[in-house]
Each structure stands twice: as C-alpha cells, then as structure tokens.
Write a structure and sequence with these properties.
Blueprint: H1 2-10, H2 18-30, H3 40-52, E1 62-69, H4 84-95, H5 99-107, E2 110-117, E3 127-128, E4 138-140, H6 158-177, E5 182-188, H7 192-204, H8 208-211, H9 220-238, H10 243-248, H11 254-268, H12 271-285, E6 290-292, H13 295-307, E7 315-317, H14 326-333, H15 350-367, H16 382-386
Parallel strand pairs: 1-2, 1-5, 2-4, 3-4, 5-6, 6-7
C-alpha cells in the first residue's frame, strides 16, 4: 500500500548527529577569530555537521528540485497570470531561461524538473523518465492534468496526495544517488499561492488575513475572492484552532496529526506542494541538507515537519520572502532565513544563492586555521569567552 511505503520512509528519519554538532561547536571556538564573530555562518556549519555526521563538510554538487503542476482553483480568478504560464515556464526551465534557471547557471547548480500535473501539452521529446540522466529534460510524473478546483471540492484524493509525496521522496533519493551534496526545493504552478495559503490556514488556525497575499500580482476583486476561498477551504480546521493547536493541546496525537496533514494536502493543496513535502521528507531520510525557497516551499516544509518533526533538522531557510504568510510559516517551523533580498519569485530562485552561503560556512569550518595552527596565543580571549563583551 502507498501509505505503508510512506510511513516506512518517515520511520527512517533520525535526529541530527549531536556528537558531530558538539565537535563542530568546539572547532568553531578554536578557530582564530573572536567568539561568534562569523554569526550565522557558524550556526550553519554546526547544523551541517549534525546533518552529515562530519565536522568538515564540502559542498561541490548542488541541485534545485522544481516541482511543476497546475491548480484547478485558477478557475475562480485568483491568479493574475494565465494558466498556460505553468507549461511555458516549465519548458523554459529546460533552457535555463527562468529566474531559477539563470541563477542556477550563475552559481553552478543543476535543476531537476518534474511534471507533477501540468494541464497543457508539453512536447514529448522534452520528457525523460530517469531523474538527473539529463538535467535539461522534464521528468514525467504526472498524476493527472491539474488538480480539481478546491473551491468546489477536494483538490485531489488522499491516494493522489500520497502518490505526490512519494514522488518527491523519489526525487530526493535520486539526488542522493547521483552524488549531490545539497538540494533546494522550488516549484512552478499558477494558483499555488492560493493552495499554500489554504494549507497554512488549516495548519496554523490563522485566517486569510494572515496567510493570503496577492501572489504574482492580483487586482482587488481577485484578492477578495482568493481570501474567501482560503477561508472557506480551511474553516473546519480553523474552528478547532488549527491542526498544530489540536496536537499541542493533546486533542490529537502526533500520528493523528501526520495523518490529518495528508488529508489537508489532499483537500486544498496541489500536486506540486505534495511532491515538495516529499522532497523534504526524502532529504531528511537520506541525511541531505534541504534548502527552502519562498512561500510555497516553506508551506511544504511545514507540512513535512508536521508529518515528521525530525525533518526540520535537515532544513535551511534561504531568504525572507516578500509574500504575505511566509513569516508565519517559517516562524511556526522554527527556522530563521539568512537572506533578505525582497524576493517573491518562487521557482526555487533563492536556493542557488543560499547554496553558496552554506558552501562558504562549510569552507570556513574546513579551511580556517585554529589559534594553534596560526601560532596565536588565545589567552586574551578568556575574559571575552566568560563574559558579555559584545
């Protein structure tokens, strides 16, 4: 059964390596610099040690997994762009002509492009069936051509949601098999800020005033309709305080919360979000660092964290997205983004930039001299180490 396979993968997600993290902290303290002077880079290097079990990590190969799908809720006029853009941009990913494509080329990353359920026709010659055999092809994993309209019923069946999650796990496994050191999680799907807002509202219990922005740009009429749809779709969960509040209060168990998370994805998510959730789960199971991009990506990361709380130890938040609802999601997740660039494109565009920040943090840990190696007596730091001198 699909569910058995999913929970078998979840069972493989282990806590980070605490011993390696302690050794990494000790090494950071021995490097020839004032304590804590590299700020977040030090935290990143320690987290990387916990993920990999190694104190000195090297990032050479990076890949952004881009999950593409259409959303039936677009019928309600909640998106500024026509649905055909999903297909057009997915094709343009193969040519590296999009935002994430150009950035991936600039920073030396690859793309793994996956069709989870695009409505419009893509030329068959652009498809491949083997992930990462040719990174300029599209992997065909179409569940069907677009989800149903969540404003009029469930977006998909529970079986389809699980199939989407398992496909994401498959992609994470392919990334590891092909020797990549880190992955990012991006998407393409017109209407997916609506699906993301609905999922976030159901999980957190917050209404559309907290979770729903104008996406790629939306007039007032469309924005009002978008908020109405998000509130209606999530109202049953919000009436109970949201999924996380039910778990926190003990009304449901952790296992029941994970089960309900899948139901939420099926009712109001997208094939892209389901697969993205699976990538985060698969990365954690395979001990691969996974970088969150923007709003849709962080909502999928939160869904993964509800299903398997230990998966958050393997996640990095790249940039503070401009999209409304992002900060609610990332704060609920308990991870702090380390870039602030005013970005709101999506696609995974923040990931190639973040890869280089993480690479730099690892290179400092590996290559910087300790006080002993630099032949510097560090006795002068005792007062600083023991007190608040900054």
């Amino acid at each position: 059964m699909l569910e058995n396979k999913l929970y078998e993968i979840i069972g493989k997600i282990m806590p980070p390596d605490r011993d390696a993290m302690e050794k990494a902290r000790a090494r950071q303290e021995s490097l020839a610099k004032p304590p804590g002077s590299l700020g977040g880079l030090e935290d990143i290097s320690v987290k990387m040690a916990g993920i990999t079990g190694n104190v000195k990590n090297r990032i050479e190969k990076s890949c952004v997994v881009v999950l593409c799908a259409d959303n039936g809720v677009v019928e309600e006029g909640v998106a500024s762009a026509p649905q055909s853009v999903t297909m057009a941009q997915t094709v343009n990913f193969t040519r590296r002509l999009t935002g994430v494509g150009a950035l991936a080329e600039s920073f030396g990353s690859e793309l793994l492009i996956v069709d989870m359920g695009i409505r419009d026709h893509i030329p068959e010659e652009l498809y491949d069936d083997v992930p990462l055999r040719d990174t300029h092809k599209i992997i065909d994993r179409r569940i069907r051509r677009s989800t149903s309209n969540l404003a009029r019923g469930a977006a998909m069946t529970r079986e389809e949601a699980i199939k989407g999650i398992l496909t994401g796990i498959e992609m994470a496994e392919a990334v590891k098999k092909n020797g990549y050191d880190i992955l990012g999680v991006g998407e393409m799907g017109i209407g997916n800020t609506t699906t993301s807002a609905a999922v976030l509202s159901a999980v957190t219990g917050r209404d559309s005033s907290f979770t729903c922005g104008k996406g790629g740009g939306l007039n007032d009429e469309g924005y009002i309709r978008k908020k109405e749809i998000v509130d209606k779709a999530s109202e049953g969960y919000r009436a109970c305080g949201g999924l996380l509040e039910q778990e926190k209060s003990g009304r449901i168990s952790r296992d029941e919360a994970a089960d309900m998370m899948v139901d939420i994805l099926a009712a109001m998510g997208g094939f892209d979000i389901c697969a993205m959730t699976g990538v985060f789960l698969g990365a954690a199971a395979g001990r691969i660092p996974a970088v969150i991009d923007g709003y849709i990506s962080v909502v999928a990361a939160l869904a993964a964290a509800v299903i398997a709380p230990e998966s958050t130890a393997y996640m990095f938040a790249s940039h503070k997205s401009f999209e409304k609802g992002y900060m609610l999601a990332v704060e609920t997740l308990g991870i702090e983004p380390f870039l602030s660039l005013g970005m709101r494109l999506g696609e995974g565009s923040g990931c190639p930039i973040a890869f280089d920040v993480i690479r730099g943090a690892c290179d400092v840990m590996r290559n910087m001299a300790t006080f002993e190696e630099a032949e510097i007596n560090d006795d002068y730091l005792e007062e600083i180490r023991n007190g608040d001198c900054f």
